[in-house]
Amino acid sequence: MNVAEFDKIVAACEKNGVQMMDGTMWAHHPRTAKLKEFLFDSDRFGQLKNIHSCFSLAVDEDFLKNDIRVKPNLDGLGALGDLGWYAIRAALFANNFELPKIVAASPGTVLNEAGVILSCGASLSWEDGRTASIYCSFLANVGMEITAVGTNGTLCVQDFVIPFEETHATFTTCLKSGFNDPWVSRPTEHSVKTEIPQEACMVREFARLVGEIKNKGAEPDGFWPNISRKTQLVVDAIKESVEKNCQQISLSGR
């Protein structure tokens, strides 16, 4: 999959009045709305300076030999297209889905014998100085972290892809800490309850959108394919940078 192939899928959906939505389930958890509320609070969080997002999973030997995600002719984007997709989406989410200006893979990418990415990292940078780093790997222990640092506050999430519990999910914030006594304002843990798992929330929202189209003649919601395309653009740019020995890739005009 690359953005050119993605555009063909979206064009077919638009031609037929069909709703397109990718399966990024954590975007539909009620916690995500609370994360957004904090990240875009100019008083509590301030202006975003940096976000780090990580999704790693130590797979077994059978996976590394036989899974479609390690086959170049099947799901050839490997860990980048699978785990990296979630980490990239988190970085874009924190930046209000504004594309970075520059993307560069980090040194140390691990490829299998077929050239599929098993582990990689990357840096993203925006024109005004905001930065992001992402890490994804099939070779490291489970990690699903977000750390976002703003001028006034810090946000930490330990389980952003799959919450520890299906009934609720937590995140931690810290506000306006100082240098001489940095923890005068202690981190605060917030808990968000949900009646159904995030995957069910996703299906429910998709069904709602389809119902609006089918029963009320509504147009498909363009938000979802738009953020999917931006995620794919960053995936493509990281892959290109890997292939070009960590060269910086510009996303201007893409």
Automatic annotation (TrEMBL):
Query: Which species expresses this protein natively?
Result: Brassica campestris
Q: Which Pfam families match?
A: GFO_IDH_MocA_C3 (PF22725)
Where does the record place the GFO/IDH/MocA-like oxidoreductase domain? 39-155
Which family is it part of?
A: Belongs to the Gfo/Idh/MocA family.
Name of the protein in question: GFO/IDH/MocA-like oxidoreductase domain-containing protein
InterPro entries in the record, alphabetically?
A: GFO_IDH_MocA-like_dom (IPR055170)
Which SUPFAM superfamilies has this protein been placed in? Answer: Glyceraldehyde-3-phosphate dehydrogenase-like, C-terminal domain
Q: From which domain of life does this come?
A: Eukaryota
